[in-house]
Design a protein that fits this description.
three-stranded mixed beta sheet, two-stranded antiparallel sheet, 11 helices
Amino acid sequence: MSDDNLGWASEVLACLDRVNDPELDESVTSLGFVTGVLVSDDGRVEIGYRLPTYWCAANFAFLMADDMRTEVGRLPWVTSVGVELGDHMYAETINTAMTRGQSFQEAFAAEADGDLDGLRRVFLVKAFQRRQMALLDYLLAAGRSPDTLVALTIAELQSQCVDTGALLLERYLERRGIVGPDGPDAPAFVDEHGRIVAAADFPAHRRTLRRVSVNVEFNGALCRGLLAARFDEPEGEPTLLDFVHGRVKEDRRQAI
């Protein structure tokens, strides 16, 4: 592979780092879903990916393929993007759709169940909730009071976060606009409907956020365990059994 192709492949992988499993809010690269990237001299890109089970939901599989195709297609030197799902019950349908540039509804016709954009939004909101919980946990541990936090604007929040907090803030602000205006004067912390969280409602609000986060972490552990078992690979991240037996430390939960 030429030096140009190696550089291009690195750019493709950087794009794929920004593509998340919609349910888990983790990148397809960190989850181990991407199996290969091939870049041709004429700017054609071929991406291979896999999923934890043969029967993973078709809409999730399609969303990830479509997001990979779209994200990599934004690179100025790319002339075409091929995305191929391996060893999956809907692989042929999804791979044909990627080749033809079809939508989910066009690919699955009568089998298509519901609006894919609506499904995407559902999981973006869950990602917003999970990221908010991680940021709130950081700020509370740093000594900020609930009364102070619910009164912050986004501009004021940005002055409260340094080091690890700055990374958590960056991730949170990536999803803040999903639920409402996210300008500097907008409230920093709102619920999933974009409503300001009152101080009196803060404990209940945090319980809701934690339920969402624990559910996502549980599903993530299950997926990593299934992927490792299916492809006989070492498990580098917490699996389902780790959560069941309480072997996941609190700092690991907060960092996710």
